[in-house]
Amino acid sequence: MTDQAFTLRRRAWEANRNSHYISVSSGKGGVGKTNFTVNFACQLANLGKKVLVFDADLGLANVDIMLSLSVTATIKKYLEGRATIDDILKKNIYGFDVFPASSGFMELAHLSDEDFDKIFNIFITLDDRYDFIIFDTGAGISDAVVRFSSISDTIIVVTQPEPTAITDAYAFMKVIKQTYDIKLVNVVFNRVDDIQNSDNVFASLKNVASKFLSMDLRLLGHLRDDKNVRKAIRAQKPVSILDPKTAFSKDIQDCARRFIGAPVEKQKSANVYDLFKGVFK
């Protein structure tokens, strides 16, 4: 696919992109990354933004399951030339669009450069339709995860304030710094039951990242542990839509507002809003 016309289109896209690209990663699986992604997309859409969630866990799709989407045309079919971009695109799911991946195809975890060119063509084609394109990447530090991070304007790492999750989050940060010299990462702590402790964990992680990686970390928010999240996941609906008054829903609303520089009614961590005010407008 790397012909002259595509090369020119890609250069034009890289130089003058319309969408703001966000990569949501975790390092460790099971920390609530996909749940954060779909609820974050819901709230950005509620704030009037045009949003696409791209399931970047190409061989182990989760976004369609979380949203109870029926998927027939897949990214595998697209890469094989058997489906178009608009065949796959799912429109206006809870106010945002979804580009689903595939499930159970190991080869999608190890794509060739040609296949990545085909994937980049998706973004080139859809770029002027959205304010935000969010990559819900796979867990870990695979080549695919790191590549999606490399083309993103913003990287969000979802983790938990416990040792194994923090260790894996730091390992991910180390890889993207060494591979692409990424200097800024935004952190979200999920399943928080003690905000002060979570603040302390963030302060330690920020200090280590600055000292050993020369990387700056910003705290986007805390998501309180909330039993309603598990109910919503079982119902295959975003909790911020199913029950917008729960603790988690209020916290994710704050994350979205903070991200675009909108006022946050109740701050849960000192100076967080000041860090983000107007940065992503």
Automatic annotation (TrEMBL):
Gene Ontology molecular function terms on file: ATP binding; ATP hydrolysis activity
Protein name per its UniProtKB record: Flagellum site-determining protein YlxH
Cross-referenced CDD domains: FlhG-like
Pfam families xrefs: AAA_31
A single cellular component GO annotation: cytosol
BP GO annotations: negative regulation of cell division
InterPro entries: AAA_dom (IPR025669), FlhG (IPR033875), MinD_FleN (IPR025501), P-loop_NTPase (IPR027417), ParA/MinD_ATPase (IPR050625)
